[in-house]
Specification:
The chain is of the alpha+beta class. The chain contains 18 helices and 23 strands. It has 5 domains: 146 residues, SH3 type barrels, CATH 2.30.30.100; 139 residues, no CATH class; 68 residues, no CATH class; 134 residues, no CATH class; 52 residues, no CATH class. It is globular, with a radius of gyration of 32 Å.
């Protein structure tokens, strides 16, 4: 496993050349190809040669061991303290042990993470150490999480993304040109324009009404297919629930989250009711089910998840463009609309016959009964059709399961029920979900404590092979947050997004990822000059002046002439020039950086240098809907945000 992990890490860092590390006396650390001369060190970074005299260099590190110091010993000490604390019955004494272990493992993590950053290639023992530290830190987090789970968010949203954005308004009519000699007109009195409306204000939280009453009101809409088809009715019900409330945990809040999420879309968006397209072509037949949107009399689009099937009526028949394919003329094409699914039948049974208006009084056994009912339905439908539209059933099952797992000591039967649909238990904590869901959940939990390096270690070890867009997207975000935190290695972030773009499910997602990668490339800091676009002159070492050997006499001060040995006229027999203006940098002490990709000065980036963010209006930026069930938000796919790339803010993912 570790060998495979090391290989994945090497692949993830492909395209970046590192070598040894120079630690300067001013604390700066440089990674590159180091060469030693009699009086100085030469380090090559991104094609640029930087020279430092030996009295400027504190240490030349040729392997990670030179950087780790006492980190391995600190890990063993922290591990010993943890094991001792686990066996202590006195909670106060045990907590003291945990708090004693915490700074030791934190210091070791910093040393190992820095060593891996500066020595990214090879050294599998370093990877083993990082994995062990990650596990130990997670264990300590479980015991005293309140002490370390407090880090400011790495990105602050500029607003809230609308849940159902209205269509773009038509362009204003062209203004006619003014007459050549316009008659004088008395200007009307000035009118103060009305203030602009707030951007997608959050629905009221209804603090004066009990949540139970609001759930009953929302169920009146949720149980009626006719009312669910009315966007205004759904929005009113979500407002009653307080759709953006961040309170979670317990039966009613979990169910309210599920109910508000369900009401954020209509039945077609949930694929409970579908439109079906059956097509015959040259030697093949194919069917797609999704939501059909007619754009004109001759053009329609069938949305199948993130993919699109385009239909066009031509003069000689119907044409179809499959996802990722080219348009072709069909031999026959059949469209069936508003087909009801088995999932819709199961959902109606659940919503109307399971006494959900009394959910506040449900015992654990009743929640477990609901979980089993819904997940057994899901299992049966998937057995018939692996692509069955079961998302809503999983949503409500997750709400009941979250209520069960919120208990101090959850019943083992709750974890057994989750296995009906292949949900696994996380290695740490009472959290269940699919592997991809657990990855997104882990992303948000690591972000909450600001440990981006540990998050990257976990993703490389457990989720690097995932093909899920959400998992790969948040992986790129981790690289970006880590780069901003240490102000280096931005290439890992933009290479990740550009790599995801190659396998994007549709053109809109592909263009968004490409624009995000371009934004990061354009505002990234050069590794050689750290964004200044200037380097210290390696001749005068930044002084602008220096003592230089005479090039005419080679420093001897003498020249052989036909009349014998004479003093050099250039240096007047001194062999060198003292305190002379540097000829290379023209006494500025600086040279233009010509490292690969460095074309201009770039200030130290923040997240705003690359993109702006809008908070997901459905999950309020949480990304996952529940505390104990790793079910990514259906609106933002678990990211919690919608990013607007600086290179082109119109290239959004949705």
């Amino acid at each position: 496993m570790i060998r495979r992990f090391a290989w994945l890490l090497a692949v993830a860092l492909a395209g970046t050349a590192y070598g040894d590390v120079l630690i300067l006396k001013n604390g700066k650390k440089l990674s590159g190809d180091v060469k030693e001369t009699e009086t100085s060190f030469l380090i090559e970074i991104e094609g640029e040669d930087l020279t430092y005299s030996k009295d400027e260099v504190e240490k030349w590190c040729k392997s990670p061991k030179d950087l780790l110091g006492d980190a391995p010993q600190l890990v063993e000490e922290a591990k010993k303290l943890y094991l001792e604390a686990v066996d202590i019955k006195d909670d106060k004494v045990a907590q003291a042990k945990f708090h004693e272990a915490l700074p030791k493992v934190t210091k070791a993590r910093e040393a190992y993470a820095e060593a891996r950053e500066l020595f990214p290639d090879g050294y599998p023992d370093l990877d083993t150490g990082l994995v062990n530290i990650m596990k130990l830190m997670r264990l300590i987090r479980e015991r005293c999480g309140s002490e370390i789970a407090s880090s400011p968010p790495p990105i602050k949203p500029k607003g809230i993304a609308p849940l159902n954005p209205p269509p773009a308004p038509p362009p204003p009519p062209a203004t006619p040109p003014p007459p050549v000699n316009p008659p004088p007109v008395n200007p009307p009195p000035p009118v103060n324009p009305p203030p602009p409306p707030p951007v997608n204000p959050p629905p009221p939280e209804n603090p004066g009404r009990p949540l139970g009453e609001r759930i009953v009101e929302a169920l009146g809409v949720a149980t009626s297919p006719e009312k669910r088809a009315d966007a205004a009715e759904r929005e009113k019900a979500r407002d009653a629930l307080g759709g953006r409330s961040k309170d979670r945990g317990g039966a009613m809040p979990s169910f309210a989250v599920a109910l508000a999420t369900f009401l954020s879309r209509d039945d077609k968006d949930w694929r409970l009711v579908v439109d079906r397209v059956d097509v015959k072509g040259a030697g093949f037949e194919q069917s797609w089910s999704g939501k059909l949107v007619r754009r004109s009399d001759t053009s329609s689009v069938l949305y199948v998840g993130r993919q699109e099937v385009r239909l066009r009526k031509g003069p000689d028949g119907m044409y179809l463009t499959p996802p990722g394919g080219s348009e072709f003329r069909t031999e026959s094409l059949k469209i069936q609309e508003n087909l009801k699914s088995d999932a819709l039948v199961a959902l109606q049974e659940y919503l109307t016959t399971h006494s959900l208006i009394a959910i506040s009084g449900f015992a654990a056994s009743q929640h477990l009964k609901e979980v089993r009912f819904l997940l057994e339905k899901v299992k049966a439908m998937r057995a018939k059709d692996a692509a069955a539209p079961v998302d809503v059933l999983l949503l409500f099952a997750a709400a009941h399961l979250d209520a069960l797992l919120s208990a101090g000591v959850p019943e083992p039967a709750a974890f057994d029920a989750a296995k009906l649909v292949g949900w696994d238990k996380a290695e740490f904590g009472n959290v269940v979900g699919t592997k991809d869901g657990l990855a997104v959940d882990a992303y948000h939990r690591w972000l909450a404590v600001g440990l981006y390096d540990m998050a990257i270690v976990e993703f490389l070890q457990n989720y690097a092979q995932s093909s899920d867009l959400s998992v790969r997207y948040v992986f790129g975000m981790l690289y970006l947050f880590r780069a901003i935190h240490v102000n280096r290695q931005y290439e890992r972030a933009y290479l990740q997004f550009e790599k995801i773009a190659q396998a994007a499910p549709n053109q809109k997602v592909r263009e968004h990822l490409q624009a995000l990668g371009k934004s990061i490339r354009g505002a990234s800091v050069c590794r050689a000059c750290e964004g200044t676009h200037e380097l210290r002159c390696n001749v005068c070492r930044g002084q602008g002046k220096g003592n230089f050997q005479c090039s005419s006499c080679g420093g001897s001060g003498k020249l052989n002439t036909v009349k014998g040995v004479r003093d050099c006229r250039s240096c007047k027999g001194q062999g060198r020039f003292v305190n002379m203006d540097c000829p290379k940098c023209k006494k500025t002490g600086k040279l233009v950086c010509k490292a690969k990709g460095c074309t201009k000065a770039v200030p130290k980036p923040t997240i705003d240098s690359f993109c702006e963010a809008l908070e997901c209006s459905l999950c309020a930026g949480r990304g996952v809907l529940f505390d104990h069930v790793a079910l990514p938000c259906s609106e933002c796919s678990g990211v919690g945000l919608f990013l607007l790339p600086k290179s082109d803010p119109s290239k959004t993912i949705k």
